[in-house]
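Materials and Methods. Structural model of IF factor. The 203-residue sequence of IF factor from Vidua chalybeata was retrieved and submitted for structure prediction as follows.
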Amino acid sequence: KRNGMIGNIYSMGLALQALEATRKFYAPRKWDCAQAFSVVYAHDYQQPMAIAQVLPALVGRSYLDVAGLDCAATKNMSPGQQLPLSPMLGTHGIPRAPIQVHYSITNTLQGKHFHYSTSVTVPSGSTLLQVMEVAAEENPQTFSFQTEQTSWGPYVTSIHGLAGSTEDRTYWQFLSAGDALDEGVGIYKPHDGEHIEAIFSTY
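The predicted structure was written out as tokens:
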């Protein structure tokens, strides 16, 4: 399903490891290995945690293999043989042209309901987090937000004073064209004219 995507881009590394490690036990249900790996190769991974989880699958191993690795047999391999990752780790320059991003926040779940929208101008190549920062600078009373740093990058804990809660099973979900974003706010780069929605949601 979804052209090879398993869950989202964050879950791909562990999913590929699990499917490769259990390949002989997974029959008769088939999965398209090449299609799934094409998703990984096409993605420009930047977060250390995501890279750490996808690396083993790319070299044909899984975390389960660590206990039995023969380090003596691999220490003389050239860097090119050890890390065939140039397609996914390339860096891209940030174009200077400005883009306009439409950004809205919505709560119809708790307390006083609200819906606010704005349009901000940022340099193309800006992350969603930078879009949110500009919106908060221009209208702090409405678009202020808080984040906490995680091993997966910044995680938005509250917007407009409304915080998610594990007790209430609530969180801020980010969508584009009705679909949940596959990347976090610190990585996702909106395109010109895109409408990003932050919706207070439950799971």
